[in-house]
Amino acid sequence: MATLAHDAQPQIEIDPLDVSRAELYAEDRWQAPFAQLRADSPVHRVEHSDFGAYWSVSSYKPIVEVESLPELYSSEVGGITLADFLPENDVRMPMFIARDRPVHTGQRRSVSPAFTPSEMTRMSDDIRGRTADILDSLDWNKEFDWVDTVSIELTTQMLAILFDFPWEDRRKLTFWSDWAGDIELIKDEPSRLKRLEYMYECGTYFQNLWNQKVDKPQTPDLISMMIHSDAMSQMDQFEFIGNLILLIVGGNDTTRNTMSGLAYGLDQFPDERAKLEANPALIPNTVSEIIRWQTPLSHMRRTATQDTELHGQQIKEGDKLALWYISANRDRSVFGDDADKIVVDRANARRHLAFGHGIHRCVGARLAEMQIAILLEEMAKRRMRVNVTGEPTRVAACFVHGYRSMPVEISKY
């Protein structure tokens, strides 16, 4: 006789407005649920997700409000992603983007000299030369992977220069970045442990580089800047690894996925591409517009430090909030009814939130913009058009919004 399985676990119905689901990004169908959230519930409570309960903040104004109140909405208490830190089986690796003031202020100030206007000027010729070399190495009218050949290579070279990292090992930076930025790995214990193993590997490698620079005169690279900084010279190994992960992911995933996004996005909107091709003076604005449209990091997380109210919703102390930059950058109340399109001469493209807002705004924003602008400029010099020949493979995650691969051919216009 059949018996009832009294111990069967109840099935929790999927919340269609749980925008943390990885498949939405892997399949590029996140736009509709965010549009519904912005219209009906811009501060929305999700009770059940793979990352636990959270508030989904999806429109522009409430995200700016949260970012403008860092004491009320902490980056440090729960970290900066929806994935929770679990004290019983995780190792905390603090990084300055996930610290509150005053620690955040001192550590950010330590690395910011690497991204000043004078440093941008100093690096621009090198960036242009390397970009030209890569573009000149491409085969015309022959399919290749834009992500690996152009986006990853350009950004990994830049990271190697910023860290004074051994050139022949530069692809390790890409490898570590991919593992560090994948918050989906917390759902699988073997993968979580493998990620931890690679983070230690990364830390050991960089510790050797650090040791080689101790007691040496300061140089323009980030490791030397940390060594010669009061705020960062005495970091323990975990904080050292954490800040390395921040700088690697920040410098790699964001710029690389925007470089891939420009190839994909301009192919999707050929009228706008033609407008840009006819008028290269639009490149600076196009850079901001592509960053807005792509939004290479979908969200940042904050944690409420006390009970409060946000746009009519009662937020409790300890609640976590996902600030969906990817959604705010499509907010029609800010960017107009064509916010889902790339518009290369959009008047307010620079208002995007892809770099964040307030004290945590991306410290390397100028460098990212310059790299993308130079890529577009060098493509224009060669009258190079990127034609996407097949659907890209996308990152299956709600944090890094990007591409694993993208088949393309290049042609002249």
Automatic annotation (TrEMBL):
Pfam families given for it? Answer: p450 (PF00067)
Q: Which residues cross the membrane?
A: none
Query: Does Iron count among this protein's keywords?
Result: yes
User: Which PROSITE patterns did the record assign?
Assistant: CYTOCHROME_P450
Query: So which residues are the signal peptide here?
Result: none
The protein's UniProt keywords, in alphabetical order, are: Heme, Iron, Metal-binding, Monooxygenase, Oxidoreductase
What family classification does the UniProt entry report for this protein? Answer: Belongs to the cytochrome P450 family.
Gene Ontology terms for molecular function: heme binding; iron ion binding; monooxygenase activity; oxidoreductase activity, acting on paired donors, with incorporation or reduction of molecular oxygen
Q: Does the keyword Metal-binding apply?
A: yes
Q: What is this protein called?
A: Cytochrome P450
Q: Which PANTHER family match?
A: CYTOCHROME P450 YJIB-RELATED (PTHR46696:SF1), P450, PUTATIVE (EUROFUNG)-RELATED (PTHR46696)
